[in-house]
Amino acid sequence: MKILVTGGAGFIGSHIVDSLLREGHAVAVIDDLSSGSRDNLPAGVPLHVVDIVDPAAVARAFAAEQPDAVCHQAAQMSVSRSVREPLFDAQVNCIGLINVLDSAVRTGCQRFVFASSGGVLYGDVTTPAPETTPANPVSPYGITKWVGERYLAFYAAEHGLSAVALRYSNVYGPRQNPHGEAGVVAIFCKKLLAGEPATINGDGHYVRDYVYGPDVARANVLALVAAPSQCGPGSLTSLNIGTGLGTDVVDLEALVRPAVAAAATARGRTVASPAPLHGPARPGDLRSNLVDAARAAEILGWTPQVPLAEGLALTAAWFADRAP
Ligand SMILES: NC(=O)c1ccc[n+]([C@@H]2O[C@H](COP(=O)([O-])OP(=O)(O)OC[C@H]3O[C@@H](n4cnc5c(N)ncnc54)[C@H](O)[C@@H]3O)[C@@H](O)[C@H]2O)c1
User: Is 172 assigned a catalytic role?
Assistant: First the structure.
């Protein structure tokens, strides 16, 4: 199968590209490189440096590649930027999505997999939220992910597309950008490798469901190749992708710190491993968010394979290999 991965030069997208290539699929990528990097892509993968907001450029990339399926990861993914610039957020996450959907149906794609978000759809939940939890997005980013799923349902019904929305929990792993506001594991790894303390926002008792990036990539591959009897044409299937296990930021930091120290030691370096600092709480941060992925297990046969401690060790090792 030939799959076009938008946002394929980014963190999750590039793990999807790797998984697809391992499974023997042909892959092409659309990415404007606003946060992604060419270095995340294996040599030989065609990369169209295109802004998905530009319909003609998107159409040209589809015409050149003629994919069978689309995996749509490209997005404006900063919650705080969405609050500051809701118009920009909607341009990339709604108009950009519609441009990609239009080109997908015009070139005869059968399957469309979309990166949605359990975190922003379900809000504060203390037990793992199933997909039936009423959506309650409170940021423009959450609203555009929700609207994105509604557009997917429309295109599926109107054009017979088989659409799958994967509602990720908090994804972490190698290649995550440590410079943004999200990606606490990447941010902590970078700080600790520089010998600086991690900064925990507020009291740090914010519970999240951390899922390893390559596990999320595998869920995307399964969704892309699922039989029509599992993810049928003409409808949208929304599935949570997470572990259902909650970890608060204080406990997370206490796991990342020794993982980083061990990764540094294994490379002949010593890092100071200072205790964390506490900064101000971030306004609007949810106290608890975790997802129930039982439906993904039932429909796709997907379960997370990499436990948190192992994923943190692999992530720390990746960052340690690249530390100055
Ligand atoms: N990381 C998480 O915890 C998480 C959780 C829920 C959902 N998601 C979703 O997963 C997807 C991938 O996120 P990620 O964590 O890999 O982030 P990322 O920033 O690493 O990847 C996004 C990619 O999209 C590209 N991109 C952004 N705007 C674009 C545009 N206008 N045109 C073309 N390309 C554009 C970027 O250059 C980047 O390569 C996003 O849709 C995000 O909303 C991520």
Answer: no
